[in-house]
Known about the structure:
Elements: E1 6-8, E2 13-14, E3 20-21, E4 28-30, H1 38-43, E5 45-46, E6 54-59, H2 63-74, E7 79-85, H3 88-97, E8 102-105, H4 115-125, E9 130-135, H5 140-144, E10 154-158, H6 165-176, E11 180-182, H7 184-187, E12 190-192, H8 203-214, H9 218-225, H10 229-242, H11 250-264, E13 265-267
Parallel strand pairs: 6-7, 6-8, 8-9, 9-10, 10-11
Antiparallel strand pairs: 1-4, 1-11, 2-5, 3-4, 12-13
Helix pairs in contact: 3-4, 8-10, 8-11, 9-10
Amino acid sequence: MTETSWLLCQPDVYGPSQYGVQSQGGTVLRGETNMTVHNRVNSLKSAKTPRARIRVVIVEDEALFREMLVGALSRQSNLEVVDTADDAENAIALARTARPDVMLMDIELGGEMDGIDAALAIKRESPQIGILILSSHDNPRYVTSLPLGESTGWGYLLKQTVRDIATLGQAIEGCARGLVVMDPAVMTKLHPREESAVGALTPRQQEVLRLLAEGLSNAAIARRLSLEERSVESYINVIYQHLGLSGESEINMRVKAALAFLKSLQAW
């Protein structure tokens, strides 16, 4: 994956300041290229630190691809494939019995439930389990059906953009840590709902907020948009006012603004 992936830490995650915004309220990080999560994730100290090897259940109805994933992920030193399923019902059962840290989930599964239905059911029952959707569908409506702004430990990657197993492994590790990991090819197809507080912002304010939600610093946003840094600060202060964010630390307000942005998204 050659573009930036979106990473939103769970509350209670701490990280070095050079890795993005940090606080007890949460941390927003930004990947650089090839979804470079690995070193950053290793530096985080979370209340929900996964075991030395991350327990993974693979849910995929195509037998050949499922076995390929088992073989490839089993060779990763930090991952342990504990079981597989080929339909939603078995996936939900394994979430209860196999004690996985992450479920790697396809969307199209045999039976009445698809992967999204199974993922939502698993999260309702076991919110600590990370869910990484690995799909060939770039329809953003699948992403907007996930409660990204309300719970963490979610991921959505496209099979066609994951170019190596290391990238997939890093995404699995991110979900195990409680991050939100999104494929940028899908995120570019989303925009804030007009009736939302974010949708009421001007196009430029939304652009600034989008970059803030990626985890960029004010200086990085200024460079990206060819603005003065103090202009970016002014935009962000106005955004905070529109979103009703005040009386908290700058870091907490950035995290809440990023959450508001994720919650507002819908397909074009």
